[in-house]
Amino acid sequence: MCLAIPAEVTKILPDEMAVVSMDGVSKEISIALIEDLAVGDYVIIHVGYALAKIDPEEARRTLDLLRELSAEGEGAVH
């Protein structure tokens, strides 16, 4: 199973790289597949690559859903 998650671009770096924030966790990723990216944009990332820009509201809804699922999973009995 593959999971691509939204992240906010917090810094553009040289060599088609950027720093993104995922719920407060920073990660350096490749932005080689996306043109015209700016700080504050949201992207879908998978295995260290930004795959596409997405609407900020859609990113927030997805992140909220992931947080909700995580909270429910923490209360589950395994």
The total of beta strands comes to 5
Distance between the termini: 20 Å
Note the total helix count. 1
| Basic shape | elongated
- SS-based class: alpha+beta
Q: How much of the polypeptide forms β-strand, as a percent range?
A: 35-45%
Mean pLDDT: 90
Biggest sheet features: 5 strands, antiparallel
Q: What proportion of the residues is helical, as a percent range?
A: 10-25%
Write the layout of secondary structure elements.
Layout: E1 5-13, E2 17-22, E3 25-30, E4 42-46, E5 49-54, H1 56-74
Question: How would you explain this protein's 3D organization?
Answer:
- There is one protein chain.
- The protein has one helix at 56-74; strands spanning 5-13, 17-22, 25-30, 42-46, 49-54.
- The chain has 78 residues and is of the alpha+beta class.
- Strands 3-2-1-4-5 form a 5-stranded antiparallel sheet, with helices on one face.
- Strand 1 and strand 2 (17-22) form a beta hairpin.
- The protein is elongated, with a radius of gyration of 13 Å.
- The mean pLDDT is 90.
Give a brief description.
This protein has one helix and five strands. The protein has a five-stranded antiparallel β-sheet, covered by helices on one side. It is elongated, with a radius of gyration of 13 Å.
